[in-house]
Amino acid sequence: GSKLLVGVDSGITGSEGNSIYASTDEGVHWSLSSTGLTDSSVQCFAVNDSFVFAGSYEHGVFRSSDSGATWAPATNGIGDWYIISLVAIPGYIFAGTEGGMIFRSSNNGILWTEVDSTLPFHYESEPAFLFTDSGRTILASIYNVGVFLSTDLGISWHSANSGMTGKNVTKIMRCGSKLVAATNGGVFLST
After folding, report:
1. Do residues 54 and 67 make contact, with C-beta atoms less than 8 angstroms apart?
2. What whole-number percentage of the chain has pLDDT above 90?
3. Cα(57)–Cα(118) distance, rounded to whole angstroms?
């Protein structure tokens, strides 16, 4: 069967220590699944090949090769950045950080490379939220700057803000054949 994983902020739950829980019965029962995790605030998950990745608040990225039962740091090249988002496409995983940086790994987190140098705007203190839903297209929303698109695995990025009045994009998702973006200026639909 399938396994569900959830990251829980220990400050909210009052729990001590690490905060990934797993369920094998569609969320009816949960058990702690944090062996090896050294950060109590997991922000996001992604799956690539047979690995599960967890982005954390203080210690970068963690990787599991056993469906989340055990975790190990996967921070070579990315360090301890606050990971806001993780997305996977076949053969690659991308991480967006609180510092507005975007990293890519082509070897399941063994080594990360920064791939945001061609973004027209790069603010060190702004978060990078990432989204992908097909092929090799990655969308990055840089807080207060807008949305950027890469079709070449992050080698180059191009503005994708036409028609948007709000540049603070916090969520992008697919709705049928279109993309929907939630911004500080409202909700926008791609055409």
Report:
1. no
2. 25
3. 26
pLDDT tens for 9-30 read 555 444 455 578 888 888 888 8
Amino acid, res. 109: G
- Closest by CA position to 133, among listed 180, 100, 87: 87
- Whether the predicted pLDDT of 122 surpasses 60: no
Separation of alpha carbons 141 and 185, rounded Å? 14
DSSP state of 70: B
Tokens coding 183: 């911004």
Residue of 60, 63, 33 whose CA lies nearest to 46? 63
21 in Cβ contact with 27 (< 8 Å):
no
- The contacts of residue 68 (CB under 8 Å, 6+ apart) are 3, 5, 20, 22, 33, 52
**C-beta neighbour count of 30 within 10 angstroms:** 15
What pLDDT score was predicted for residue 135? Answer: 73
Residue pair 46/5 in contact (Cβ under 8 Å)? The answer is no
Which segments within 16-155 are labelled E, that is strand? 20-23, 31-32, 42-48, 51-56, 61-64, 72-73, 83-89, 92-97, 102-105, 113-114, 128-131, 138-142, 146-150
What is the average per-residue pLDDT within 126-133? Answer: 77
Cα–Cα distances in angstroms (integers) from residue 106 to residues 61, 80, 82, 103, 128, in the given order? 14, 19, 20, 10, 19
